[in-house]
Structures are given as structure tokens and as C-alpha cells.
Amino acid sequence: MTVEKRTLGSVIFAGIDSNPYLGTLYARLLKGYGLSLFNLNQRSSTELFNAKEKTDILRFADILSKSNDPEKADAHKIWAQEIAILMHEMYPQDSLVNLYAGDVFSSVGNHKGLELVNKDYSEPHALEEIFAQFRGDYLTIPAEPSQRFFGEQKNAYDHLTDDCFSYSAPTSMGKSFIMRMFIKDEIMHGAQKNYALIVPTKALINEVRAKVIDDLGGEKNTEKVNYLKLHNYSVVTAASDIALEDDNRNFILVMTPERLLYLLIAKPRFDLDYLFIDEAHKLSGKNSRAPFYYKVVDKLVHRQKKPHFIFASPNIPNPQVYLRLMLNAEEGDEDALAITYSPVVQIKFLVDLKKGRIEVYNDHALEDQCRILLANVRGSGIEVNDFLLAIETQNRKLSKEKRKQSIVYYNGRDKAIRAAHSFYERIKPNGPRNDPLLEALSKDIQEEVHQWYYLAEMVRYGIAYHIGYLPASIRARIEELFKSGNITVMFCTSTLLEGVNLPADNLFIMENKIFLSEMNTIDFRNLIGRVGRISFNLFGNVYFVAERNSKITTDDYVRMLGQEIPEQSLSIATDPNVLKKVEKQYVADILKSGKSEIPRRVNADGKAMQSEESYEMMRRFATILQGDIVHERDTLVRREFKDFLTPADEEFIRDTFKDAEVKPDDDINTSVDQTTSLIAAIRRERNPLRYPDLVDGKFVYDDVLAFLDELAEVFNWEEYEAGTLGKPSLRRWYAVILCQWMDGGGLKFIMDRALEYHQNHPYPFWINKHGSPITYNYLSDDHHNAVFGDTLEVIENIILYSISNYFLRFSNEYRKIRGDEALNRNNWYEYVEFGTTNPLTILLQRSGFSRESARYIKEHHEYVIRDGSTGQLKLSPALARCGNTDVRNEVIYIRQNSPEIFEADNNDEG
């Protein structure tokens, strides 16, 4: 008989999860904390446990913190942290609790937690003190010697020199911080390389850009050295950035996958040494942008000099799946790391406003025992605003460093704005904060957007909403003022899931959906992980709310909390939840027929069988596949279709398109049929397609609309952009905004014109996307703000994305046919991209300024100086002291990143 050998540790930890005494003590601790939080506890915290019980639960935490269980060690350590944190909250002055809390955080290697709960803690034994010192030295961040990695961060960091590496970690684990510290260390030591950080949305570009410049620019890094200037680097965010014209410079690119793809197309010889893909789980989702990730990786992996490929994603159990994008990569643990330990914890509450129950959720209990009742509030009429008001009433008594910050999540723009305004009305009687920073932000929102924009007044009270289409400079200031505690309540949409790093003590989740679809498990966990951020706090409270008028129930939340994150597959893999087998067969059948147009799949009644996102994803993968076959590239996309296309099928497709005048290329925003039609229109003998001329330097609405109508036919927008550009009525609206935008009108001007239009054309008007048309009321603030929201959304999603991409394709093809100089005097793609025809405003934006800041500088020409020796335009250092807050903020970063565009300051070396 074979006797299984077991370590002492495995024996000790084997049954600790189900220890009934630990379970009872922990449930009582959770309930005690919940009652205290809601001011429902009639007893003092000293009555929560007797002396023995208090010591016992602390000992359990100590044991859990030292777990070496091969499967559950991280879960045990997180549980130990939960106990230590809650005990510290309940007994903040207790020396025994502080001692054990210090031991717990020391044992799990959470040095930041240790600083927050017991900064004076020292190891009780000499050997442990020696080990702690050794561990501290080992975990020291090379680029920031005053800081230390967590052990799991260090493990990931040490793999960043691998040819390809993929890691996942909880949302609070600082995945992008690891990348930035690696880049900083390389540059500090003189590396002459190019790095690219891919972020999933435009909303994240400015935040990540600012952090990279903070790391390296000298203004905020601990060394006060501008490593960007010292080693000739620039941080760039678009292919049009003027810094890219300097062939002797190195770059850190911070871009969406679309922007990076266009840069690689425009600069085919641009060498890239490192590609960091943050939020890599987008490669698994059903979204129209996923194909751009694949195309970027394919372009780089086929180069003779390949970059290092680094993937980072939240929470997923099999990060190695993304290594399949590498041609020769095998799925193996040696190239991947799944981190499950989190340095922060979330305490979860179920707030059922239908049944009038408040419960605390116990992650460590069986399913039928995971809900602990705290209070029955049936008939009280309590709502979420009551919770927020109680928190804010307390905040008014505290310094901004001690205030509790709250995020409220809704699944749509209109809901978030309505909820924010509802809470503003509730807190309005208390008066504004009288905070100079908030008053300045309010004034700037009024001047830049509109005086009737809800946000302008809300921020005076410390309230804001965070949605994707906010002007970048305004959004950045809102984020900074939230981090600093000036703004304390933020209403958010799914932009919060895209990696926006906002500290919060409380997160109210009002929906389990993103738009109309239920969140997948990754997004749900990612959302929860947005509260409790190690840079700011050790834990956070998450409130899962079921409102009276909502279909969602607390049972829905409990179901989702009980789900494990499944192993992920790639978007291109045949998966019923992503790219279906029938969709792959559909694409294969069209290409085998010799066609390149991919129409929507419809049923017998002519109704669409796919969502817009699913259709766009399928169509773009089809474009990639067609190009890979024609150009005989061995790619993952092509390999994933091998069950649907025989070698003979591929040969037919190749023969059909390889000799065609228009072959598939790398711009996957347009397909071969669209490009063929475009080229034919540009080459027409009579009335060839071209950008209309401006009249007295201005755009003429009829000319703009006529040009859009021609593009609609050329690009087949009726099929490919059926819900937006394909509708003539919407094109007329887009043409109005497009004229105003390209003419250089400020946002406030555009908003005023939109209000005037609706006043003169009051019916029909939609207050939200899911309601019925009504008559526009010019006296209604709600109606004004619906117009503002719709207009900003059109600028962000239609003008700056869809139309911009089509104009870029047009400009590129026009130059190929008519010559490189053909658009030097009239390039509408440039006018859309920069929102002006003014050369100075364009130059300033290419140097890093936002559109609104560039307009301010143009209007205040005293800050623009012509260099007497070179004739070049320079900016006066006095711009850093101008009267515009957004400009002053941007100057700080641009002077670090592009100091050459400023005239030397005798008073400030800058």
C-alpha cells in the first residue's frame, strides 16, 4: 500500500476553508462591519467578539496569510487580508489587532497595505526580519528604488524580456504599471528603442500618455530628471504627431489598435521593439475592434525584426491563449502567468429596494448561506440617493484627503446623466462646495461646452459624470479632481471598464448589463475590481442594487458572483458566443463565389440575424482572411478558417483576386469592393470624385452634403453603415456638424447652432434612444442636455471615427492616383482630424495640444513667437501662466515631451 506523503502545511490548510468556527466568526465580522457601516449597530464594536474570539479570528488570519496550499494559497491570503482589514476597521485603536494586521500584510508581501495599517510594524524574530529585508531588496522596483513590487508583479516583470509573454491579474494589480516601470528602467539606462502601448479606447490615451510622461518627464518623477529629453524620446498618440518626422528620435507610442495600424501602414519601415497590449481580453470579445488587434500583430509578426509581444489582461485563467497569435508560439505555462492574488479586497452588499432588504454577501460561505441580513427597510421609501446623501453629508465635514469617494455605474449614457442630475437636485439645498478648483472647472465647461450643460453646474457640488464622448481636457480634469477628493461622486457608464483608474471607496452597481446585453464574467469582475485601488485604499464597498422599477434582482447579482471566469478563446476561434460556425461558413461561401462584398446575414423575413458589432467583426475578419489568402500569409485568421476552405478553394480565391487591379490591403476599415468603387470614382473622366473647394475659406453645406452622398454610393453605406451614414436623413444632420467642425467652430458654437435648429424644427425630437418622439421644448433643461449629448456623441463616433476613417481612405487613394501633392491645399481628412483648416491650430495639435487649447493659443497670438534665426514658430514660456486652466495643464506635459517647441525661459529651465 502506497502512503501519500503530505507536508505539514498541506495538512494545516487542507480543511481551513470549511472550518465551521472560522466560518461563524467571519460571518459575524461581516455582519458587524455591515451594521456599523449603515449605522444600524446598537452595540459597540467591543461587543462584537469576546477576548478569546477576537484572538481566535486574528490567529485564523495569521494562519491563512502563511498558506502554501498549491491551489488555494492566493485565496487564503486574500481572505486573511479581508479579516485583517475588517478587524482594523472595527478595532482601529486595538494594539493586538494592529499587531496581527501588520503580521498578515507582512506575510502576504503586501507592503503598501502594511504602510496603511501599521507603518511601524517590525518582524518579531531576527530571522524573519532578515528575510523581510531580503524580500524588500528583491522586490525593489529598479526604476523607482523607493517603491517595491508585489511578489506577483515582480514575477511578471522578470518575463518582460521574453520574446512573447502573456499575463493576467486582478483589476487592482497594476498590470500597466509593470509595463511602464519596465519602459522607464530601459530608457533610464540608455536604451534606444521604440515601444508601443495599445489601449482599448481613445478615452484612455490621454491618461496613459500623462502617466508615461510623469514617469519620465522630470516634473513628477522622483529623480527630477527629464529622461525623455536626455535620451531623445517622445510620447506620441497619433500617426500625425509632428515628432514622428524626426528620424533620429525614439518613441513611446500610446495608441488604440486602429491608430497603431494606420501608423504601421503609413510608415512601413518604422521599427518597433516592444508591443504591449493592455486589456488583452478584447481579443476574446465579440466587438468590431477586435480584428484590429489581430491585424496589428500579424503585420509585426511577419517582420524580419519582430518586436517583443506582451499581453496583459484582467482575471482570466488562461492568458496563454493570446500567444496563439504568434506563428510559432505554443500554448505553454512558461510563457504565461495567471495571477490570482489581489492586494485589495471588496466587501459586497446586496441592496434590494423592491423587497426592502439590505444584506452583506459572504464569498466564503455555501450558496444557501452567502446572504447575511442586515436590515429590513420595507416601506421606508429608501433609494440610492439616500445612501449617497448620507456619505456626502459626512464628506462635508471632512478634509478632502479623508473624504469617501463613490462611483455609480449605469449601463447607458442617458441613465447615468439622469441619475447624476437627480442626485444633484437632491444635494442642491446644501449649496456648492465653494471649492476654487471646482468653480474654475465649472466656468471652463460653460465656456467650452455650454452654460446649460448639466455638468457645468454639477461639478460645483462635487458631482460629475464620466462618459466616453466628453472633451478630453474636461474628462482629464474631472478624473484628476476625483482622484484628489475635490469631486466625490461620479456617475459612470462602461467607460469605467476600459481601464480608467479612478480611486473609490464605494461602488454602486445599478445594472448587470453593458448597454442591452448582460455582462460577461470578465467584465463583471473587472467592474467590481474598480473599487479598492492599492494606490489609494486597501478595500472598497460594492453595493449591488436592485431598484424598484428595474428588472434586475439581487438574485441575478448573486448568480453572477457565484460564476467562475471561464477559460477564454480568441474572437477568431469558432465559438457560439463570439464568431459562430455558421458565420465562418457564410464568409467562406462568399469568398468562394469570387465576391468580396460581405452583406448582412438576414432571415427569410429580411431581418438582421446579427448585431451591428457582430456583423462588423465578421466583415473585418473576412477582409483580413481575403488578404491573407491572396498574399499567401500564414496567419492565425487564415488557419482558423481551414475547416471551411479547402486548398482548392484558397487557390480559386487567390487566382480571382491576385490579378485584379484592386487587391486586399491592410486597411481593414474598407473592403475590396469599396476600394474598387472608390478608385473608379476618382478616375472618372467626367466629374471625377474629389473634395469640393472651399468658398472664401469656408465649407458650403450643400457641397459637403453632396460629397457625403457620393461617398455613400461609392462605399455602399446603405449596406455597411445602415444605422448611421447609410441613412440620408442622418447624413444631412452629420453634414451640418461636419461643416461646423471643419470650419473650426468651438464646441459651444456648435451646441448653440444645434439648439437653434431644434427650436426652429421642434418635432419630432427624441429625449432618449428608447422613447417616443416628442415636441422639443426650448425652455427645458432636459431637452437642451439631450441635444448636447447627441451632438457630442456624433462628433466622437461619427465625425472623428467613421467619417475620419473614410476620408483617410479617400485621401490615400486620391494621392496614389493624382500625385502626392494633390491634396496639399485641400485635405478634408486633415480638417476632420484637427477640426480646423488653420495651419497654426493644426500644428499645435500635432505637437500635443487639444483642439480647444490650440484654438485658445491661436486667438491669443501673443504666446506665439517666430524664431528670428530659423523662422520657426515657438511658444512663449508665459503660456504656462496664461488664464486658461486646460492650456496650463497641457503645457506642463508638452514642455516635458516636446521642449523644442518652446522658446527658452530665462526664469525656468523647464
TrEMBL record:
Residues 156-334 form the Helicase ATP-binding domain. Residues 383-583 form the Helicase C-terminal domain. GO terms for molecular function: ATP binding; helicase activity; hydrolase activity; nucleic acid binding. SUPFAM superfamilies: P-loop containing nucleoside triphosphate hydrolases. Keywords: ATP-binding, Helicase, Hydrolase, Nucleotide-binding. The keyword ATP-binding applies. Pfam families: DEAD, Helicase_C. This is Helicase domain protein. It comes from Ethanoligenens harbinense (strain DSM 18485 / JCM 12961 / CGMCC 1.5033 / YUAN-3).
